[in-house]
Amino acid sequence: MAGRRRVVLLLVVVAAAFLVAATSAGRATRGKSARFELLRLAPAASLPDLARMDRERMAFISSRRASARRRAEETASAFAMPLSSGAYTGTGQYFVRFRVGTPAQPFLLVADTGSDLTWVKCHRAAAASKNASSYSHPAAAASPRRTFHPDKSRTWAPISCSSATCKESLPFSLAACSTPANPCAYDYRYKDGSAARGTVGTDSATIALASGRAAPAPRNKAKLSGVVLGCTTAYNGESFLASDGVLSLGYSNVSFASHAASRFGGRFSYCLVDHLAPRNATSYLTFGPNPAFSSPPPLESTASCKPAPAPAPADAHGARQTPLVLDHRTRPFYAVTVRGVSVAGELLKIPRAVWDVDQGGGAILDSGTSLTVLARPAYRAVVAALSKRLAGVPRVAMDPFDYCYNWTSPSTGGDLDVALPMLAVHFAGSARLEPPAKSYVIDAAPGVKCIGLQEAPWPGLSVIGNILQQEHLWEYDLKNRRLRFKRSRCTH
Question: Keywords assigned by UniProt (predicted)?
Answer without folding.
Answer: Aspartyl protease, Glycoprotein, Hydrolase, Protease, Signal
